[in-house]
Amino acid sequence: MISSLICLTITSVFAFIRSGLLTASGLGGVGGAGTVSANANAGQNGKGFVGGGGGGGGSMNVTHYGGKGGNGRVLGGAGNKSNVPGDPGQNDYADAIYDIISSVGFIAGGGGGGGANNTGGNGGNGGNGGGYIIISAKEVIINSGGAIRAEGLDGTVTGAGGGGGGGGGGGGAIVIDALKLTNSGNISVTGGAKGYNSMSPGAAGGNGGAGCKLIIQRGLR
Fold it and tell me: Would you kindly state where each structural domain of the chain is located, as residue ranges?
């Protein structure tokens, strides 16, 4: 598992993922914090050329909005009020290696917007967006049970006394540059699921948009 990194780049002749997890999930834009008696905080924007948008936050308040989802390469969803769910983030379909290579060192998926409340506890926090993983090898094998993920994290679920749910984080990006790929496992760049209020389902955030995954049959140069 990767931690404290925006991205991971692997360059080798042979990459073998037997049964473990290689992940950059949650390493993108930071989700916005939920609030009480105020508009909720927006999710952090991605700063690269890839990544899904974060979902907007929900709100149980007729005045204060949930936070806007952060942008990835595409737009994050708007936050809403009055028990109207936050808008989902847009999906990213970047299909050029230039887009992803140009993003190295920058944030990918946008963070989800925070939820808002009128009284009581804070709304839920938005989920963090996904980071990105780049693998370049002549051959890559992912066995059953192995996985590569750059997913957005889920928005926070609230309950009695809490406010609107946080938006899900936008998915990140995965690039596999290999002459041969054998995949019996899972490669995922999904956005995070919306948070919601268990006592008021309408005050939900929006789902995070999916990121992008790109398979290039080029291998090491």
Answer: 1-13+22-174+187-221
Q: What are the phi and psi torsion angles at 146 (to 5°)?
A: -90, 155
Q: Which of 112, 75, 115 is nearest to 202 (CA)?
A: 115
pTM comes to 0.88
Terminal-to-terminal C-alpha distance of the chain: 27
Look up residue 118 and give its amino acid. Answer: N
SS (H, E, C) the chain: CCCCCCEEEEECCEEEECCCEEECCCCCCCCCCCCCCCCCCCCCCCCCCCCCCCCCCCECCCCCCCCCCCCCCCCCCCCCCCCCCCCCCCCCCCCCHHHHHCCCCCCCCCCCCCCECCCCCCCCCCCCCCCEEEEEEEEEEECCCCEEECCCCCCCCECCCCCCCCCCCCCCEEEEEEEEEEECCEEECCCCCCCCECCECCCCCCCCCCCEEEEECCCCC
> Is beta strand 14-17 parallel, antiparallel or unpaired with respect to 147-149?
unpaired
pLDDT digits (tens, 9 = 90+) for 152-162: 999 998 887 77
